[in-house]
Amino acid sequence: MLHTDAKSLKERGDRLFSAKASFDRRNQDIAENFYPERADFTVARDVGDDFAGHLMTGYPVMVRRDLGNSIGSMLRPKGRNWFSVRADREEREDHEAKLWLEWSASVMRRAMYDHKAMLTRATKETDHDFSAFGGGVISVEVNRRDTALLYRNWHLRDVAWEEDAYGQICGVHRNWKPTVSQLCRFFPGKVNAKVSERLAKEPHERVAVRHVVVRADEYGAKAWRQPWVSLYIDCDNDHIMEDVGSWTRRYVIPRWATVSGSQYPYSPATVVAIPDARLIQAMTLTLLDAGERAANPPMIGVSEAIRGDLNIYAGGFTAIDAEYDERLGEVLRPMVQDKSGLPYGFEMSDRIAAQIREAFYLNQLALPPVGGPEMTAYEVGQRVQEYIRQALPLFEPIEEDYNAALCDMTFETLLREGAFGGADRIPESLQGSDVRFAFESPLAKAAEREKGQQFLEMKAMIAQAVEVDPAAQYTVDFGVALRDALSGSGTPQAWMRSEDAVAAAMDRDAQAQDAAQALAGMQQGADVAQKLGVAAKAFAA
């Protein structure tokens, strides 16, 4: 559908937001159990509200917090180079191309971790949205005020998007409510006249604004040079304040898992754990009540014999009738209760807590120990394979839809802004090609470490095969295999010589060996000649 005015774009967004009302209600329920500080999808919250006042235990919240914190610490450690830039095809990566790719990666890191870019804050918030709701929204753009990138996380409540026939996000609509003063500073001279009139009298009142990013062929009659169009619409006045072309979609929307027929994500962790989260709240309330009654039991007394109120607190005094005969029974005594169910209740609570922890993959994040004198190479390889199988559902979507998309949009933004210099600086072998990103993660480490175990297994098999057939040693190119194994074990490339340098060293060794053999032959000839000369002299004598 081709949109040409603000009203049609706004109506399209209104339909998208109306259709996602059930999605917001589901997320509200999830947030109340796992992410209470984010539980404002369908209700209005104040800054001073007690976010978790309705919970009996904070364990489900802590489990979500641990998973959210683990995403950043394991897949985007700030103090390490967690990504590298590669060419789309390995044959393009000659020496000059590798140098440029390494340099561009360093430029990206400096831009991403500039304090003005706020990457850490934005990804931290998105990580917790991802763990609780299965997705998040983070924008990547150039700061209008400073010459720097700007990353911001947006509430899932305020963003709606749609997919095309190929399952790709083709349009993003975001609700925004800046103050009149903020809007006039953000779009000087471009706001509607009615908004300008409000600036003097009510500068702090809110204005309903919508940011829309659509494909260029879906908006306007003119031909855009860029593939996307970014628009800011004053919804109260149906006024477009800005429409500019964009080389990127502006929004990275990672999705952990989806179901067919819906463009919105879900979290496999909370889908499984939310029944247990509700149950553990009810169980905790019951156990707290039972524990309180055990520590402060209800009392049974003779009402006719007690004068005044019961003062059963420490040091309290309760007056009773002096004529009461205690042989008839104690005038006041605690009610006898059966406490045998308390240990079983705590055992059930611990079992539910373990299930919630397992639902959030926390028992699978630790890399299993590999190596040891009692473990064979085969056992180590099997453990690594098992870890990869268990961690793949968590790490794979984050690397593909989150980290890779974030790096792609950052690279494209910096490239279009001239951060990498002109096109003449790009090596010829990379001209017209795309880039891809490789990431350092526990999953990648496990997969690469497996090469080392394969090398050891191959070495053992070759050693046994040589005993039967000596020609088996020529089956494997040990130079290539060792290089892959060393790279997989994390050996820095600077520690290893290039293939050309290794070939040159082998040629020098071969030449030195030939020279040594020639010298040994000459020495042997000289010795023979000397012996013949001595023999000739002796014969003449």
Task: Please describe the topology of this protein.
Elements: H1 6-19, H2 21-34, H3 59-75, E1 83-87, H4 95-112, H5 119-133, E2 137-142, E3 149-154, E4 159-163, E5 169-176, H6 180-186, H7 193-201, E6 209-215, E7 228-234, E8 239-246, E9 251-252, H8 268-295, E10 299-301, E11 306-307, E12 319-320, E13 332-334, H9 341-359, H10 377-416, E14 435-439, H11 442-468, H12 478-488, H13 499-540
Antiparallel strand pairs: 1-14, 2-3, 2-9, 4-5, 5-6, 6-7, 7-8, 10-13, 11-12
Helix pairs in contact: 3-5, 8-9, 10-11, 11-12
Description:
The protein has 541 residues and is of the alpha+beta class. The protein is built from 13 helices and 14 strands. The strands form five sheets. Strands 4-5-6-7-8 form a five-stranded antiparallel sheet, covered by helices on one side. Strands 3-2-9 form a three-stranded antiparallel sheet. A two-stranded antiparallel sheet has the order 1-14. A hairpin with a 5-residue loop joins strand 4 and strand 5 (169-176). Helix 3 (59-75) crosses helix 5 and helix 11 runs antiparallel to helix 12. The longest helix is centred in the C-terminal third of the chain and has 42 residues, at 499-540.
